[in-house]
Amino acid sequence: MTRNFEALLEAAKKVQTTPEHREEQRRSFAYGNTAYENSNITREMVNRQADAMASERND
């Protein structure tokens, strides 16, 4: 590994993600995997479903 790459890895280990950022990443992951299998899937559909699931958890 190069020194620059090692420095980047060390810096990445110290990053603190917010719950909002994790949720954004989760939705992006869900979209990417489902859209790969079914091109009819949209980000809006993933967001709607994620919002519905979140409201069910909070009820």
Q: Helices and strands in order, then pairings?
A:
Layout: H1 3-13, H2 19-37, H3 43-58
Helix pairs in contact: 2-3
Radius of gyration: 16 Å
Proportion of residues in β-strands: under 5%
Number of continuous helical runs: 3
Distance between the termini: 49 Å
Shape: flat
Q: Tell me about the largest β-sheet.
A: none
* Poorly predicted spans: none
User: Level of helix content?
Assistant: over 70%
**DSSP summary, beta strand count:** 0
Question: What's the helix-strand series?
Answer: HHH
Oligomer: single chain
What is the typical, i.e. mean, pLDDT?
A: 94
**Helices and strands: which structural class?**
mainly alpha
Tell me what the structure shows:
- 78% of the residues lie in helices and 0% in strands.
- It has 59 residues and is mainly α.
- The chain has a domain at 17-57.
- Helix 2 (19-37) crosses helix 3 (43-58).
- The N and C termini lie far apart (49 Å).
Quick take:
The protein is an all-alpha fold. The chain has helices spanning 3-13, 19-37, 43-58. The chain has a domain at 17-57.
